[in-house]
Amino acid sequence: MSLQVPSIHAVPASVGAACVGALLLSAAFRADAAELSGNAALTSDYIWRGSTQTHGDPAVQVGFKIAGDSGLYGSAWASNVEFAPETHASSEFDFTLGWGRSLGADWAIDVNVLHYAYPSTTSDLDWTELNGTVTWKGNYWASLGYSNEALGYGDSGIYGLVGAKWPLNDRLRFEAIAGYYDLKDLDGDHRDDSYAHGSLSAVWALTAAGSKPAVEARFTAHTTSSRAEDFFGDELAGSRVEAALQTSF
Fold this sequence. Notes:
Layout: H1 13-30, E1 35-43, E2 47-48, E3 51-52, E4 59-67, E5 72-80, E6 91-103, E7 107-117, E8 127-136, E9 140-147, E10 157-167, E11 172-182, E12 195-205, E13 214-224, H2 226-232, E14 240-248
Antiparallel strand pairs: 1-4, 1-14, 2-3, 4-5, 5-6, 6-7, 7-8, 8-9, 9-10, 10-11, 11-12, 12-13, 13-14
């Protein structure tokens, strides 16, 4: 996700994306016993950290991940976007290089570098973020992200999130997240643009547990603090709902 204004990177987006892609391929194919997986979704609205990336329009999304026994992995993910019409941004590609594995029976850790690329735009909106996630019992997690070019600006931002899921049976589960984006240093305008957001989802499995591909229907209610509406605009933030059909394979 990026914001409605150009960033001030020194490296062109195409060069940055190519370098990240080369690193991912090199790391992935060196991993022993590599496993390939994928995911896809059709959603009524692409919502990222509380704000819509498609002005409330549907999005088609697809991603692939290759992982080795060592825990090293690389992934690529894509979606259509329309958050900044004046920049002609119409597509987003996320490239991730990371490492993750279990720490005993209950705990797991993941650290990664995530690069957001917008090759279709007339402006350089690309940016990169360092992320870490700790998971407990597979149902509770906390994440922290940092970037010195948050949202495509040339300033830092820190993002924190906690989440949980509650399976009711083999088919139905609920998920909830609460996030806070610390953007007080953003754009050097001496205004605190930090905001909070949250969501609650109901997810219904349409295929039997353990089957591949797995197909699910998801309904999510999102909300943000008023600061998000001040920052992004009330047409992009605030309260909204999202329905999606998603699959993993």
